Structures are given as structure tokens and as C-alpha cells.
Amino acid sequence: MAEQKKDSADGTEKRREQQEAQRQEVKVAAKHEPVDKLCGNLVSVTSETDIKLPVAPQAKKLPGKSNPRLKKSSRKHVQWVQHLYSLPNPEYSSKLVNFNGVHPSFVKLGVWYSERVILGSNERCFALLGAIKTLIEDIETPPTQDFYRHVEDMLQSCTNYLQECRPFAVSMSNALRSFKLQLRPVDSSLSDEEKRARLLGAIETYISNDMVKAWDAICLRVNEKIWEEDVILTYGCSSLISKILLRAKNNGKNFSVIIADSRPLLEGRELLRRLVSAHIKCSYVLNDHHSSVMKRASKVLVGAHALLTNGCLMSRIGTAQLALAAHNFNKPVLVCCEIYKFSELVQTDSFEYNDIGDPDLLYSVDGSSAPSPLRSYRNSSKLDTLNLLYDITPPHLITGVATESAILPCTSVPAILRINSAENM
């Protein structure tokens, strides 16, 4: 037994010596082998196995156009209103052909909103309700889904697309909220056609009661405040103000109008065209000259984008400047606003929430593409251009608000909102 253990120990020792000698031979061979030969072996292995690295896919480019979502906007943003800037506009050339989940009427409406083809709170709200009517008329419900739920899902995707094109006006948000209340199940026994007719009827009722009849009532109330030989100062182009003045002219009242306007939209020219066509005596000035004509004015009539809970007026930018001048000259300022434009928002400045227009329009003198001396400042590194569309007028500058219910003070907005909320419960 002792001899066997001694033989096995000698065999193990010999194997260890042989393994150590082989490792030393490998180290010496590797040390003296040329480096280019080793590199050649690596290259040959790589070429034989044909290894390919994944390449990032290149963005598809439209002929003659670049995708605005893939490139960074060249416009400089004003830092302290950075939250107001939205994403670049979607690529309309592809969405007009096929855009999944969005009705064609909403695609077209989104382009009109973004390109500022439709201006004004009333016009934008009216166009939105028209697009919803078209959606309801064309919609086909899947067999396994309820009609109201399918309309709600489709409407959500369509309104999300519109929000990408341009933020909603307060009137649009209120009208959409009122319509969604009609999507509550009332009677499960109704057929899809009966539900469709019910929704279409609700839209017609909203347009008739909250818009058309409201305009008629406001026209009657404001006409009572227009006297013979009055000189009315207004600003921009409000569709409601236009209706009021044309109705007063049809009622045989003799008055004149001063239209204050401002760049870059120069909307007052459209109001001037309408009033002159109706043989109303008009004067036209830019907003920076309103103080020179304020002495001639007997009252100031302005439209509204929204009337906020704290009594502040949100309207076309420049309205606050006009109201301040009227306050200094002791001229009454009457705001003409429908109740469906009342908002629960509270805002004291123009920077918390606003809509931003194209800053390039500020570099044109007359709203046209003709060469302008202001163009030389467009690429200035020391100048950041901001084109806000609305401003905030504090309530102490407003004499009253003409609504379809009555001529009310600005502080009555919370009470009106509570009444409307209780009626919709």
C-alpha cells in the first residue's frame, strides 16, 4: 500500500511539471509572433462571420419639404413665457391624406386654426360645433360598442389633434364640455339612429340658445345705451360688436364709429368695410393714436375672448391699453360678452395663459410680405420677438358687461357660473 501511494504521488508531480512546461512554451511563442499576424487573424474572423452593426434609420424626407417634428425650430423663444410655446405644427401634407383616428373635417379645421384662417372666439366655436355635427353624421358604431362611448372616443382623438394645431378658446372649451354632458346614457333602449338624432339636436339647441339668441338679446340691451349723435369707439373686429352696430343702424339711430386697430392682424379693416357698406360714418386710427380721438368718443364698446372669475377681461391684445385711456378720460367702457364665454380661470396677467402668434408678422409694416425696414432686425441676436394675441384688462377699468341676461358688473361672474352649474346638474 505504501509503494502504491508513492507511485501515484510521483505520477502527479510529473504531470504538473509537463503542464508548466507547456504553458511556458505558449508564452514564448506568443511573445515572438508578429503583431500584424495577430491582427490579420482578427480581421479574417470578422470578415468570415460578417458581423454588421445596427444603423439608425434615417428620417424620410418629403420632396421639397422637411419634417418640422424632426428639426429644431429656428425661432428664438422668450424664456419667461417658455410654457406658452407648443410643439411644431404637424405635417399637414401627410395628415390630410390619411390620419388614423381623426375625422377629415377635424383635420381640415385644424389646418384652418393653425393658419389663422378662422379668427374670433365665436367663429372658432361655431366651426368646432359644425365639425362635431359632421362627425356624428358620419360615424359608424362597431357592433360590440355603445354609440355614446364610441362617439366619446372618436371625439377625444379629434380634439387632441385640434389642441396640437392651436390651443382651444374658452368658448370652445365650454361648448365641448356642454356637449360631453349629452353623452351620458339616458335610455338604453334607444337605437343608434335615435341617439344620433338626440346629439345633433343638442348641438342645434346649444347654437340657438347660447349663441344666436344671446347675440339678439345683447344687441337689444346695448342698443338701448346708444343715443343719437353718439360717437362709439371700438377696437379690432368683434363679430358681436359688428352685429350690435348694424342692428342699431337698422333701427334708424344716427351715430358714428371710431375704429382703433393694431398690427399685425389689422382686423379693424374688416369691421370698417362692414360698417361703411351699411352707410355708417366711420373713422379709422391705429391703437397708438387712440388718445387723440378719445375726447370725441362718448363711450367705448369692446368684445371679449373670455371673462374670468376674478372679473378680468381677456380680449385681443391692446384692449387693456384702450380701457386704461378711456378710464383716464372718464369714458364708460362696456364689454359685450355672451355667458358661454365666462370662465372659471383666475388670471391677473397676460403671461400665465395666452396664445402666441407668428412673430414674423411683427416685421411687416402692413401685414403683407412686401419688404420692410423692420426685416433687418429679424435675425438680431439681441432681440427676441414675442407676439401675444390676448391681454388682461382689470375689472376696475370696466364699467359693465352686457350679457343676454342683463348688463352686469364684472364681479358677477362667479354667481352666473354657479347658476349655470346648478342647471346642468
TrEMBL record:
It comes from the Eukaryota. The keyword Cytoplasm applies. GO terms for cellular component: cytosol. Keywords: Cytoplasm, Initiation factor, Protein biosynthesis. It holds the Pfam family IF-2B. Residues 1-29 are annotated as: Disordered. InterPro entries: IF-2B-related, IF_2B-like_C, NagB/RpiA_transferase-like. It is found in: Cytoplasm, Cytosol. Its main location: cytoplasm. GO terms for molecular function: translation initiation factor activity. Belongs to the eIF-2B alpha/beta/delta subunits family. Component of the translation initiation factor 2B (eIF2B) complex which is a heterodecamer of two sets of five different subunits: alpha, beta, gamma, delta and epsilon. Subunits alpha, beta and delta comprise a regulatory subcomplex and subunits epsilon and gamma comprise a catalytic subcomplex. Within the complex, the hexameric regulatory complex resides at the center, with the two heterodimeric catalytic subcomplexes bound on opposite sides. This is Translation initiation factor eIF2B subunit delta. It comes from Dendroctonus ponderosae. The lineage of its organism: Eukaryota, Metazoa, Ecdysozoa, Arthropoda, Hexapoda.
